[in-house]
Hints:
Layout: H1 3-13, H2 24-40, H3 45-61, H4 70-85, E1 101-107, H5 113-128, E2 132-136, H6 144-155, E3 158-160, H7 168-181, E4 186-190, H8 199-212, E5 216-222, H9 227-239, E6 244-248, H10 257-266, E7 270-274, E8 282-284, H11 287-294, H12 300-310, H13 313-324, H14 331-343, H15 346-351, H16 360-369, H17 371-383, H18 387-391, H19 398-407, H20 412-431, H21 437-446, H22 448-451, H23 458-461
Helix pairs in contact: 1-2, 2-3, 3-4, 4-11, 5-6, 7-8, 9-10, 14-17, 19-20
Bound molecules: guanosine-5'-triphosphate and magnesium ion (MG).
Main location: cytoplasm
Binding site for GTP: 107-114, 190-194, 248-251
GO molecular function: 7S RNA binding; GTP binding; GTPase activity
Amino acid sequence: xxxxxxxxxxxxxxxxxxxxxxxxxxxxxxxxxxxxxxxxxxxxxxxxxxxxxxxxxxxxxxxxxxxxxxxxxxxxxxxxxxxxxxxxxxxxxxxxxxxxxxxxxxxxxxxxxxxxxxxxxxxxxxxxxxxxxxxxxxxxxxxxxxxxxxxxxxxxxxxxxxxxxxxxxxxxxxxxxxxxxxxxxxxxxxxxxxxxxxxxxxxxxxxxxxxxxxxxxxxxxxxxxxxxxxxxxxxxxxxxxxxxxxxxxxxxxxxxxxxxxxxxxxxxxxxxxxxxxxxxxxxxxxxxxxxxxxxxxxxxxxxxxxxxxxxxxxxxxxxxxxxxxxxxxxxxxxxxxxxxxxxxxxxxxxxxxxxxxxxxxxxxxxxxxxxxxxxxxxxxxxxxxxxxxxxxxxxxxxxxxxxxxxxxxxxxxxxxxxxxxxxxxxxxxxxxxxxxxxxxxxxxxxxxxxxxxxxxxxxxxxxxxxxx
Length: 468
Ligand SMILES: Nc1nc2c(ncn2[C@@H]2O[C@H](COP(=O)(O)OP(=O)(O)OP(=O)(O)O)[C@@H](O)[C@H]2O)c(=O)[nH]1
Ligand SMILES: [Mg+2]
C-alpha cells in the first residue's frame, strides 16, 4: 500500500533544502509535486486542496522547531497534516456498551463484509478476549449464510444459523436474544451487499439499523476503489449514522487514496484495515503510523508490536536475563535470533518495516544479495557445532573450525565469517541487555539504513526528531 505515493513524496520532499527557513519560493515546486502525488494516489480533489493549503499555512507560519533543517521541518509538517487528515489517533470499537455489543457490517457487493466478519471475530477473540457470535442477514445471495458459517468456524466464533426464508430483521432480533442467553460479548451481523447504493438497499439497511440499534455500524469498503470508496461511504453515512469504516484489500492497493480521503469526506474514522485474504489479515488503523509509512519512515511501531507478538517471549526473556547477569551471547542465542527472524517473515518482511527501507532500488539490491540464503548458511554452520561449542564461543580453534566446516560442507572461511558476525551481534546484544532493549535495538536497526547508503525519506526526518 502507498508504494507509488511514497516514492513520489520522498522524491519531492528531498528538494526542499536551501538556507535558513521555509519561504513561499522554496516550497512552491514541492507543494505542486505533493499535490500531484496525492491526486495520482486518487485522493479526492477537495481533500488534496485543503491539505496543500494547510501545509502551506503551517510552513510559512514558522512555528517550526529550530533544530530542524528546512527539509526536515517541511517533512514534519507534511507528516503531521497527513496524520490529522486521517484522524489523529486510532479509534477502536466501542466495547464498553452493554453486552451483547452489536456490530453491523454494511457495504457494496464483494467489498469483503463476510470475510471481515470472521477477521473481526478472530481479532476480538484473540486480542480482546471477547466471546463473539456471528449471524448472517444475507438472505439474497445463495450460499451467503453457509459462507459465514464456514469462516466463523475457522476462527472459532459461534455461528447462529439463519435461513433464506426469514426476514433480515427477524434473523437479527432472534440472534440478539440468543447472544444474550449465551452471554456473548459481541454479536457481529453480516448483511447482504448490493451493486449500487440504491434506495431499496438503503431502506432495508436503515430498517435493520433502526430495529437493531447496533453499537457499531461499520461500512466495509474496497480500498482499490480509491476516492470512490470515500464517496460511497459518505452516501451511506448520510442515510444511516456510521460509527466507522473498514478498508479492505489494502494489500492490493498501491495508491492509498481511500485511506487518505475517507476521514475528510465522511468525518468518520477508519477503524481497521483488511490486508489480505487470510482471516488474520486485519489491523487496527493508526493514522500516525500510516503517515510515517507513507513518508517512507517505515512502520517502526507496528514492527515492535509485531515482534512482541510473534517472538517467543519466554525465550527472549531468558536470553535477556542471562545477558543482564553478564552472560555472553553465544551461538545458541544467535540461532534463536535467526529462528525469530524467520518467524517474522524473513529478512525482506523485516526490512520492509524499517525506516528508509521503502526505496525500491535498495530493496532490490538486498533481494539480490539473498539474505535468506546467508541466514540458512549460518544456521547450518551453527547446527554443525557441538552443544558445548554453541554455548562456549571461546572454544573455537582451527581444528574445531575445520571439523565444523566439513560437517556442513562449507569452507573454513565461511565459518570464520560466521564467527565474526557473531562477535558483532554479541557486542550489540550487550548494549541492549536491559528491559527496554528491544525498542532500543529497533531504533539502532533504523540507523542501519545509513550503512546501506540511505534512501527513502527516513534520514530527512530521522535522528533530529526531538521527540523520538
Ligand atoms: N486481497 C484481499 N482480499 C480480500 C480482503 N477482504 C476480502 N477479500 C476477498 O474479497 C472477496 C469477497 O469477500 P466477501 O467477504 O465474500 O465479500 P462480501 O462483501 O461479503 O460479498 P457479498 O456478500 O457478495 O456482498 C473474497 O474473495 C475475499 O477473499 C482483503 O483484505 N484482501
Ligand atoms: Mg457476504
